[in-house]
């Protein structure tokens, strides 16, 4: 069996603005209804979690204007934290992961917030840890420019250390709630942390009690060596997009060796590979649908240039799209993403057209055909599951939850019920 999740690529944001299947976007924007509907559908389908990406910058790097950021609403983000309890209230089992930037969130604030959310969600919350990349995001928090790439991950490792210590500042049996003695908690089992690191310090303890999970689930998606090291040390689930089955196998092997280096077992972190299934009633119809999608993506070079500008904090409008792909090996942003693009083509145009979407394997066909491919690829790659990265529309949600998921369940490769009460418990169930 393998795990399933959904990566909401623009978090609590805008999806498919003005597209045919985007639904009532005007009424959905900034409201929980679409995401609550989605969570209920994915829970019915047996998904482990939904992960809300986030960003705190409205970039004007590309061409020096906000046009590319707001034309289609693709970089609009609402804070995902208030959405988490609303989704939890409408569901019973699915995990809910919200993104936060370790560079900008003080450790005590994050530890206390997620301990609180762990209680509110009855043990179903997770945090996706990112270091953020654009200089403009850093400037929103008072920095002149962003911290250097590898140092951000060194900071993140220290951040995760102090947050974990704060979660553990109450011993597991500190809360006794002895009504006869009139004692809520044993004060001798609560401790200061007194953390003094290179980047952070915190006295502790938390003034919240341990949640049902004690340690909320940690998710991470770094693809660089520094990012993979961080994930191997701290993550419970890792998002990955290596290319092809061989790449998936190599990635899992790499993460496993890094985990062993940190004294962890390989099954303590679940690696989920990004995919965007294209489904239809026949394989031929699905292929035609894919070709139409790819053609539209390849023709929208301007949007891809804007995305690359965001990832690197470099205005790509200065480059000739038919000239040699620029050397960005020392950029301070998403290093693995830009390295993948550079390998995809000799020019920007060629790279964009060949690497139109970040996914590990192409899944195109009927639900039954795609389910068979997913089963075959996972057995060969040896990973832990898939993370859907399709656009969040009710049409796409229904195709996955009510078309693909039942086909997977018939093959016995995904769960048909939840065996544990907490997100962590279900994630580690197999």
Describe the structure.
With 430 residues, this protein is α/β, with parallel strands linked by helices. It has 2 domains: 3-167 and 200-281 and 359-428, Alpha-Beta Barrel (TIM Barrel); 283-354, no CATH class. 41% of the residues lie in helices and 14% in strands. It has 16 helices and 16 strands. It has helices at 25-28, 33-44, 67-70, 83-89, 107-120, 135-140, 149-167, 225-234, 244-261, 283-299, 301-312, 335-344, 348-354, 367-381, 394-410, 423-427, and strands spanning 3-8, 12-13, 49-52, 77-78, 95-101, 125-130, 175-178, 183-185, 195-196, 201-202, 217-220, 237-240, 270-275, 278-279, 364-365, 385-388. The strands form 5 sheets. An 8-stranded parallel barrel has the order 1-3-5-6-11-12-13-16, surrounded by 5 helices. Strand 11, helix 8 and strand 12 (237-240) form a beta-alpha-beta unit. The protein is globular. Keywords: Flavoprotein, FMN, Monooxygenase, Oxidoreductase. FMN binds at residues 54, 99, 149, 153, 224.
Our count of helices gives 16
Dominant shape: globular
Spatial order of the strands forming the largest sheet: 1-3-5-6-11-12-13-16
> Structurally, how many domains make up the residues?
2
**How is the quaternary structure best described?**
single chain
